[in-house]
Amino acid sequence: MTIENENRNDRYNSHPYQTNNWINISYERNKFKFLKDSRYGSGGYKTGMYLVPHKRENQNDYNLRRSKSYYNNQYQAIMNAHYKPIYKNPAIRTIDENTPQAYLDLYEVFASDCDGRGNSLQRFSETGAGYTKNMGASFWVLNNDSEVDSTIEDVLESRAGLPYVFLITPDMVSQYTTDSFGNLTSLEWYQQDGEKVYTSEGFEGLSSNGFPSSPNSLSSDDDLIVVGVNLDSWYVRRGGEIEVISENSLGILPVVRLVEDESESIIPEPSLYSVARMQHRLFNLDSIITDISDNQAFSIFTTPTNGGSGVEFSTTKGLSYPYDSSNRPEFISPDASQLKTLLEVEQNLENSMYKAGVVSHLQRFQQSAESKELDRSRLNDLLGTFKNQIEKAEEKLMYIFGLYVGFDYGYMVAYSDDFGVSTIAETIDRFLALDSTGITQAMRTKLEIDLANEILDFQDDDMRQEFIELIETERELKSNEQNIEDQI
Q1: Hey, where are the domains in the chain?
Q2: What is the pLDDT of residues 72-103, one digit of tens each?
Q3: What is the pTM of this model?
Q4: Given phi > 0 = left and psi -120 to 50 = alpha, else beta, which region is 116?
């Protein structure tokens, strides 16, 4: 279905009370902007344009709901849990132990400032992993300033002439080509600065809602600037004309593609896209709850009146009944049970988000120990798979770096397998190992309390506190018994 047909057939966009001033996230062209906004609470979440208008809602009511909307960002916490633990500890990076000092100096400069902006290789990798987890892929492009003829001393002092890496995210990609095996042979991207596309006239902003139908809608084809690299050259495409900037003498494409897991698709569907859609639903549900709670607080006054009473009412101030009716003056408001139901739906939706994100153990809602154990195990597996992809991406990046400087570093990287997401069995084993080392009673008590909180299901905080007090009492008794034995 074409975009034009989508607009024409969408009944929400075409009903008479609306003027097409809201953002439909279901359109494919809006996907990456929507995912980026879901992570940071920007775009349509900030402006309220992600609120879906009701078919019986007029423009003024919709604008009022937009002004009261807020973003309860659960998505970012879930997304962070899928890549941040990999970077909890510094990676172990090794190179050929016989690396000459000059090339060792180049490596150390690049490892500490790989993008020319002061970001270390570990920090850059973490940033790329975040974009990959959010959008399905990221592209690490390694370039070198071929016009700068720098000595080793120049590089060490000012970094001039050293290769640098930069990120291309899926929303920036214009097009790409692959060989018969599915390997990238070229990549083209729009020159962007935040949410702006670079044209020959400079940076040009997006539409007011930040969602162009395509980058071409901002400028004519002759003005739009697309940068690309293939197996032969770096180039700029302006409209239909290509201007070669420099030769690609490496013999390979200087682009590293990072994905969450092995995939034949160059830009796979993000694994957490469904969670982002649930976040969008939560945003809309919170707006409805806010609207109803406001109406609960500001009740409507009703009273019987006659036509000549001189009392005036409107739909926002009050309602009048016929004077001879049996109704008495009172304040009316929406049924409170409706608000209660919506609050329950909201809580269930939040819980479902964490379950869909395989991180329900981060929530405090009632969950069996078996379910928590399964979630931790699944998350550890996902983190381990992603870790392997990150290591491969870094090693390929350093291989390309070696081609630029003329030395094969034999680079290898290993991120820790300890993601800090312990299963129950691992927690118990760690406790027993520590307990056997002769730790103090105070430390043993603290470990027992932590273990109980980890593996036991408590109906409420009172039951939890009662059990903790029981542990402390038992430990105190054992400590007293030990003291008596020592005295004897």
Answers
A1: 3-71+273-298+333-356, 100-272+381-414, 422-480
A2: 999 999 999 999 999 988 899 999 999 999 99
A3: 0.74
A4: left
